[in-house]
Amino acid sequence: MTAQVGAELLAGLREVLGPGGVLTDPADTAPYATDWRRLYQGRTAAVLRPANTREVAFCVASCAASGVAIVPQGGNTSMVGGAVPSEDGRQVVLSLSRMRRVRAIDPVDMTMEAEAGLTLKEAQDAADAAGAKLPLSISSEGTATIGGVLATNAGGNNTVRYGNARDMVLGLEVVLADGQVINALRRLHKDNTGYCLRQLFVGSEGTLGIITAAVLKLRPRLAEVELALCAVPDEASALTLFSRVRGQDAGALQAFEYMSATGMDFVLRHIPGAVLPLAAPAPHYALVELGSPRAGAGLRAALESVLAEALEAGEITDAVIAESGAQRAAIWKLREEHAEAQKREGASVKNDVSVPVSRVPELIVRASAACRALIPGARPVAFGHMGDGNIHMNLQQPPDMDPTAFLARGHEVMEAVNEVVRDLDGSFSAEHGVGRLKPDMLAEWRGGAELDVMRRIKAALDPAGLLNPGKVLPPG
């Protein structure tokens, strides 16, 4: 049991953080105490808003001395309740929202040093202004922050080419559970000097330390981009199309996204301005994006050629290539608004799973059938990153079912999907993390020595269990 948040602790924090650095009015703290999906509604006695790393360290050390638990929070866009405090009011939220500077950009090293509260979109724009590209891209990039995307090892649309968030990190600055600061903001691409500590904190969801800044790898800015939306007859054809595009030029393939007819229908129904640029609706869709830093790379001709081959082979039935930046954005909108469209359609259970790329079609078919059998009338909504094996295998409530009753069966739905995923040698969490929603799954999927090592690491770095308690690791 953690300690209550006392008046003496808050007074000491106000003295250092200033009047806007500590929020205690329930009207001010409420937005920090619930998650984007409205799965969890917590309470907090205070939201701490440090403005620099020194203040973060002071907050952590002060709370540690008082036995008060801390929930680190970035943009609060977690899909698994990873940044929500508990209901008992004994945990304070530490928001990094005031730490949003780009400290440095080096166009020769191709690196950016950015603070944790900077949004991913702001970081992308800063890289672009410097003639470079930060390739990490996710639907919530306008709100999600650098600290959050690193703490959760975010994936996103460009993983097939650039990897996950951890693949873009060269150095980190981290505040430990006792207030010590690891300053490892190195710009080195090669540095074999002991354990790679930065990778310990990336993906740890704030349970081992609080990321305050990072050195990120940049890439050359793209000079040529081509995007196509394809109508696909079935799941297997989508995978065959992916293999065909990758085989033509793997270095140019930037994104390959899959969408079902159900998900697309929700987007067209609920998202203002969404328009299908194809002659007719299709049972399945694939979004293909190519990119090159070299002007005159001939991507348009290459994309037209590969799509013509796919059309002749029956892998696609129709396709449209974006003719402008505006049309490219409109096509991407059809993919990016899937989560929001589902929210407007009603209640949904979300499954962020991964399997080997070769088994994605089987995952979609089998998991959809399992969900329909479990809850007749429910509507599977499969979409996501086919190019790296990560599919969001979601399930929408039946139109005539009470949303609360549907959500009450959420763990049954997740287990039905996970049974298929397990059989296909996959993972129950691909890019959203474990958070508060899925710790109970960890023992079954990562038990034995693997879970034991995780517990040892947690005990070594946070022996009092004050950093984001109740997240990631199962109790006991």
From TrEMBL:
The regions listed as transmembrane in this protein's record are: none
The GO biological-process annotations, alphabetized, read as: respiratory electron transport chain
Q: Write the protein's name.
A: D-lactate dehydrogenase/oxidoreductase
Cofactor(s) this protein requires: FAD
Q: Which InterPro entries match?
A: FAD-bd_oxidored_4_C, FAD-bd_PCMH, FAD-bd_PCMH-like_sf, FAD-bd_PCMH_sub1, FAD-bd_PCMH_sub2, FAD-linked_Oxase-like_C, FAD-oxidored/transferase_4, Oxid_FAD_bind_N
Q: Which UniProt keywords apply?
A: FAD, Flavoprotein
Q: Which GO terms describe its molecular function?
A: catalytic activity; FAD binding
What SUPFAM superfamilies does the annotation carry?
FAD-binding/transporter-associated domain-like (SSF56176), FAD-linked oxidases, C-terminal domain (SSF55103)
What the record says about family reads: Belongs to the FAD-binding oxidoreductase/transferase type 4 family.
What sequence ranges are listed for the domain FAD-binding PCMH-type? 40-221
